[in-house]
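Consider the tokenized backbone below.
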């Protein structure tokens, strides 16, 4: 899946790509407040996503909830499910440098 940047990076919003934003917390970037879905790459392929919404459908499996602050629903989603999610929600991918 090829992504091309169409925006400039900044301290608060990260870099905007065609379908989602990418932020790197180690570089001082913050997750924008208008984000409805926060995603991270999964070691098993696909993505882990956190959201207040309830997600259902093909390629989406529940992975529990977070316990910090307001509880968020956590899911493991396939690449295809992630592509569809990016078209319907405001998605920010958190990219860790370690």
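A designed sequence for it:
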């Amino acid at each position: 899946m090829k992504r091309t940047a169409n925006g400039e990076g900044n301290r608060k919003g990260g870099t905007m790509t065609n379908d989602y934003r990418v932020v790197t917390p180690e570089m001082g970037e913050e997750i924008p407040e208008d984000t409805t879905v926060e995603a991270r790459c999964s070691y098993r392929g696909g993505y882990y996503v956190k959201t207040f919404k309830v997600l259902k459908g093909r390629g989406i499996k529940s992975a529990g909830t977070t316990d910090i602050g307001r509880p968020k629903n956590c899911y493991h989603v396939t690449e295809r499910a992630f592509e569809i999610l990016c078209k319907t929600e405001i998605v920010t991918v958190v990219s860790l440098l370690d």
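Residues 35-93 form one domain.
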